[in-house]
Design a protein that fits this description.
By secondary structure, the protein is mainly beta. About 10% of the residues lie in helices and about 35% in strands. The strands form four sheets. Strands 3-4-7-10-13-16-19-22-25-28 form a ten-stranded parallel β-sheet, with helices on one face. Helix 2 links the parallel strand 3 and strand 4. The two termini are about 35 Å apart.
Length: about 325
């Protein structure tokens, strides 16, 4: 049954004995979610999950001027991004927004998005290129943010940072395309007062494709739920739990990742964290370092895991832009 499922996902066909192969069919794309799963879906802090700008009008941004005006508008708004939008630095996004690329055309180039005490924002189907700092920075007690089906290419600093007391965030179905510092949770080793008990983040079905480190690197947050991601050729490390963070790593597929997990030994100058791993596949990879116990995400939300052996095919078929119907 599993072999049949993988054959269907990969678009392969059987070769009869003595016969020749028939033409391969494209792999089917997994149906994109219309609303988030994980922490962005949790009712908390007066917010009924993450709905973005659905209660407001829909506009289309084709120029930098339009885009900057729309993300700075008060009230709910669905912002369709068509073509390449060139920005600089990190530009602030007000609450109750959906930012979604049109087809495969939506590109934000040169700068990034910044969340400062913002909430209820969806960022989907955008290709972020050449950000001069972070591509997406979720900071200063922002909450209910869904980062889904994007591609991250060549940011100077982080692709996604979630810091300074932010929480109830889901990062799903993104393609981290050869990024270096992919994802940081927790601002610094000295920021325990703001980050402890916060940084509740779900990270699922992302393709960490030749990306080097921080998938994620976590300080203080708990629980951070890392599940059903595809790690491929991650030169420095996969997941690092430090500074007493609590991270659950489950149902992932690690391929040629020499250091899948750090926890008991800490990382760099950061002290040890707690990390539980279960039901992962390690193919040509090292051992996952575990330590201590972690609060179960099921105390916050229900979820169903895909079989880890199926994750490479699922994620290759579904992650990145052009796959949301946007």
């Amino acid at each position: 049954m599993r072999a049949l499922l993988l054959a269907l996902l990969l678009g392969t066909t059987a070769i009869p004995a003595g016969g020749s192969a028939t033409a391969q069919t494209p792999a089917p794309v997994p149906l994109a979610e219309t609303s988030p799963s994980g922490f962005a879906a949790v009712n908390a802090l007066g917010q009924n999950g993450t709905t973005g700008g659905v209660a407001g009008p829909t506009v289309t941004a084709t120029t930098t001027e339009q885009f900057l005006e729309y993300i700075d508008t008060t009230g709910p708004l669905v912002i369709r991004v068509q073509g390449t939008i060139d920005i600089t630095s990190k530009q602030g996004v007000r609450p109750n927004k959906t930012i979604i690329g049109v087809g495969s055309s939506g590109v934000i180039n040169g700068g990034g998005l910044d969340f400062y005490r913002s909430y209820n924002v969806i960022v989907r189907n955008i290709r972020f290129t050449n950000a001069e700092d972070d591509a997406v920075n979720v900071g200063q007690e922002s909450h209910h943010i869904w980062i889904d089906h994007n591609e991250f290419v060549a940011p100077v600093d982080g692709a996604v940072d979630i810091v300074r007391g932010s929480q109830y965030v889901t990062v799903s179905w993104n393609w981290f395309n050869k990024t270096d510092k992919s994802m940081l949770l927790g601002h610094s080793d000295s920021n325990s007062g703001q980050d402890t008990g916060k940084l509740k983040v779900s990270i699922h079905h992302n393709f960490f494709d030749g990306s080097r480190q921080r998938h994620p690197r976590v300080r203080f947050g708990e629980p951070v739920h890392v599940y059903n991601n595809y790690y491929k050729g991650n030169a420095i490390y996969g997941v690092a739990s430090t500074m007493n963070a609590g991270v659950l790593v489950e149902g992932n597929y690690f391929e040629n990742a020499p250091h899948p997990c750090y926890s008991a030994s800490g990382y760099d100058e950061s002290g040890p964290g707690r990390l539980l791993q279960r039901n992962n596949v390690f193919n040509g990879s090292g051992a996952c370092e575990t330590n201590g116990t972690v609060v179960e995400p099921r105390t916050y939300y229900a979820y169903t895991l895909d079989a880890p052996a199926d994750v490479p095919a699922l994620v290759r078929a579904g992650a990145g832009v052009g796959r949301t119907g946007g």
